[in-house]
Every structure is written in structure tokens, then in C-alpha cells.
Amino acid sequence: MNPNEIPDAESVYLIPTYRRPRVVFSHGEGAYLFDSNGKRYLDFAAGIAVTALGHGFPAWVEAVVDQASRLTHISNLFHSAPQIELAKRLVENSFADRVFFSNSGSEANEAALKFARKWARTNHGEDKTDFIAFEGGFHGRTLGALSLTHKNKYREPFGPLVPGVTFVPFNDLDAARRAITDRTCAVFVEPVQGEGGVRIADVLFLQGLREICDQHATLLVCDEIQCGLGRTGRLWAHDVYGITPDIMTLAKPLAGGLPIGVTLVTEEVSRAVEVGDHGSTFGGGPLTCRAAQIIFDYINQPDLLEGVVRSGEALMKGLREFSSDNIIDVRGAGLLVGVELKTAVKPLIEHSLEQGLIVISAGENVLRLCPPLTITIDEVNTALEILNKGISALERTS
Ligand SMILES: Cc1ncc(COP(=O)(O)O)c(C=O)c1O
To answer: Which one of 269, 299, 329 terminates a domain?
Structure first.
């Protein structure tokens, strides 16, 4: 199909769940994407914090091609060497004792919901079924995960959702303390809220959540689907808080762009889960797990993580030097950075795209920057230049 015809064909054949710009990308290399006309774009979205090592990372491509030619799929009816190799890496480098593989962030959270319910029922009886989640939190779009997702626009058309979920203001420990009861089986929290506007959990808030979960025999679930795996400059976003969760969910960057979800749990949680309690046809397949080993090994290196901190600091420093009155706040952790504007960010996103920079939003007024973790300072400076000019140009026209 002629690339110019693709956007119109989409409007005929696809269920219209997405609004997209008319650009059609043909290939990518490192931190750059190229459209069908050969125009180059610096990718500060990374497919929503997914392509952590950029596009076409050579060792990843080699592993994917090799694995695809050997064995792509066998289902979970059979043992898989790549699956266990990846599981071993995740367990040996985290608080967790065991993992369950699925195919997306939403699915990782669905598994977390079910495991929390099963753990509670096994250890504390049938009434401990409630959940706490946070205002601004995003945990996915499937019905269970959606029940924990705060945004009304996403929830309202699809009710009734899973009952027993209480939403508490993010970073309000007293409110969480008032909401939690002995019927609460799990508290779901993103250490850094991504979709909710790049909001960072306060240290005392996350530590306090750990404490109140312990007091009520409640599981603490860290959703690190967006903020985990090196994005904040630590392997795990919760690392800086001096706490460990009982369950952690991962997805986005782990397989370098192939679909994957992981639910990591302690031995105690795992003990409640039996054969047949949960399953997935594709989860943890040989291809995705082999790809993920490459990504994990590369991310889990001090040099890479230090680079994330350096580039993230350069990005935030540069943004804070912009002279625009339109900027309310610049915040972030590592390479998950938000710029809150007084106005909607859509015009800036469109302007940036025209100028060859891909950026996305996190809500109406927050620009979200989440480039590959391998982004260089030169590339950061290029992005800053485009954004600075864009913000000034839009100020002049408003
Ligand atoms: C924190 C968080 N949790 C869950 C999800 C859902 O992941 P997926 O879109 O892979 O289902 C996302 C996706 O943006 C996310 O950012």
C-alpha cells in the first residue's frame, strides 16, 4: 500500500480507538525514526517508554533473528530455556522469588490482582478482597486493571468494574491510612506515575504505605511497568525508597518492543498460587524471553544506569532554563520527565513532530519525555533546542 494512503485506509478498517498524526514511520535506528518520505525524527517517546535501547539494537536484532529461526512458540504446556533464563535474571536481581509471564502491562496487573486475591483468600479468608489505588494512577485497560485506573473517562463507559477499589489522593499517606482496612488485600502504586502526569511518590509516602500494608496484612504492589527497568536511573524505581514490595509488575521495555508482561512475587504470595490458577498461551514465549535477556543484561549495568541519571539531569536542567511563563513545573526521575504547562500540550507535540522531534503527553497539560535510555547528551540538546523554539513560537501565536 502506498504509505500516503495508510491513514485513510485506517479510518476504514480499524476500530477508531486511537487518534494519530498522519506520519507513517518506515524504520528506526538508534534514537531516530524515519518516515516514508525519508524525514528523520528524534524519538523522545520510545513507543511510550518501550524501546529502551533505541531502534534496531544490534545484539537484540541478532538474538531475535536467531531465536525466530530456532523456536518461536511452544505454549506454556512445555518447558522453555529462554523463559527460565529470563526468570532467573529477574529473580536474582530483585526482591522477588518467583515470576509469572504474560504479554502486556495490563495482563501483568491482572495477574497481580488474581494472585493478591488468592493469597488473601488462602491466608486470611474470603472477606479480604478490597484494593486501594491512587488518584492519577494508571494500571491498564483490561477490566481488572481498569478497575484500578483512576481516570473517569477510561472507566465510566465500561462499568460495572471490579468492586471494592478505593482511590486515595497520591502522596497523601494520611488518606491511605484512613482508607486501608483488614479487608484490603492489596495496595497498587506506581513509584512514579507515568500517564498521570509524571508524578513522583514522596519517600515518606511509599515508606508509609509499606508500613500500613504490614500493619493490615495487605500486599504492596509496585507497578513499575513504565518507571521500572532503569527508567529512573535505578534498576527498579522502588530502589531509592528503601522498601520492597510484595508484588511488582513489569512490561513495556523488557523485550525491546516485543510484547511481554511479568508479575514478580515473593515466595509467600507464590505459595498461594496453584497449578491451573492462571495461564497464558503466549506469555513467556521463547522469542520474547530471549529478546528480553539482551535488554535486561544491557540495562542492568552501572554504566547504563549512570548514563540515564546524567542524561536525565541534563534534560531537566535544560528545560528549567527555558524562559517561558507557560511552564508551571519540570519534574521527573532519570529519563521519565514531565513538563507541566499552563496550556494544553497538544500544539507543542504537533509543532515538535513537524520539527523532527517525537514527544507525547501525560494528560492534557503535561508533556512527557521518555527517550531511549541510551540517549546521548547531544541528542538531549537537540531535543531541548526544538522544544525551546516550539514553546516560544506557540507563545507568540497564542
Ligand atoms: C504504569 C502502567 N501500568 C500499566 C500499563 C498498561 O500496560 P499495557 O498498555 O502494556 O497493557 C501502563 C501503560 O501505559 C502503565 O504505564
So the answer is: 299
- Our answer on whether the CB atom of 194 is closer than 6 Å to any ligand 1 atom is yes
Active site residue 138: yes
Q: Which of 325, 377, 388, 321 is nearest to 351 (CA)?
A: 388
172 and 120 housed in the same domain: yes
The pLDDT tens digits for 181-209 are: 999 999 999 999 999 999 999 999 999 99
Give the burial class of 383: count Cβ atoms within 10 A of its Cβ; 0-12 exposed, 13-18 middle, 19 or more buried: buried
Residue identified by cell 517517546 is 45
pLDDT tens-place string over residues 103-119: 999 999 999 999 999 99
Among 142, 150, 225, residue to substitute to test ligand 1 (most atoms within 8 Å of Cβ): 225
Distance between CA 124 and CA 116 in Å, rounded? 11
Structural domains counted in the chain:
2
Rounded to whole angstroms, how far apart are CA atoms 134 and 193? 10
346 has catalytic annotation: no
Q: Is 252 a residue of the active site? A: yes
Domain extent at residue 359: 3-57+302-397
Ligand 1 touching residue 110 (CB < 6 A): no
219 lines ligand 1 (CB under 6 A): no
